[in-house]
Specification:
Layout lengths: L4 H16 L6 H8 L3 H13 L3 E4 L5 E4 L8 H9 L22 H18 L10 H6 L1 E3 L5 E3 L4
Antiparallel strand pairs: 1-2, 3-4
Helix pairs in contact: 1-3, 1-4, 2-3, 4-5
């Protein structure tokens, strides 16, 4: 399974906001830190705000901060939202399924178990967990010549 860019951007945004907490983080900060287009991140930040994951602060010194404690936001809930609907194969959607093997196919059952196991692991992982090694993560961010924060290594 491969997550969409949207999921990746949402998780990176939440992680950086948690890493920099209690400071306010701007979309520009996330864009520079991860080399992601600001226009992509504006939508991500708006959606995270609408869903109650971040609080946005307007104005010249505005930005965003977590609206909930990092240890109460699971990666699983973010992935379920950003990847919805999670239909690995056609037969997962009863409205569009045309497979004649529905109900007797062991592949479908196996894939359903695999998806449940995948999400179960992500449900045990919080934004606090992916921000736990704060010092090491922030160390990877270096100052560029113009003073903008840039990612030293991806990960």
């Amino acid at each position: 399974m491969r997550l969409t860019q949207y999921s990746n951007f949402a998780l990176r945004t939440l992680q950086l906001v948690a890493l920099r907490s209690p400071a306010i983080v701007s979309v520009d900060d996330v864009s520079r830190a991860h080399g992601i287009s600001k226009s992509h991140l504006v939508k991500v930040a708006y959606d995270l705000s609408q869903r109650g994951y971040i609080e946005t602060i307007r104005g010249r010194k505005g930005g965003m901060r977590l609206a909930r404690p990092a240890d109460t936001i699971t990666v699983g809930e973010i992935v379920r939202w950003t990847e919805a609907p999670l239909e690995l194969v056609e037969c997962f959607n009863p409205e569009t399924n045309t497979c004649p093997l529905e109900g007797v196919c062991h592949l479908s059952r196996g894939l359903q178990r695999a998806l449940r196991a995948f999400l179960s692991v992500l449900d045990d992982l919080t934004i606090a967990d992916i921000s736990y090694n704060r010092g090491v993560l922030l160390e990877r961010l270096v100052q560029t010549d113009n003073g903008a924060v840039a990612a030293k290594a991806t990960g």
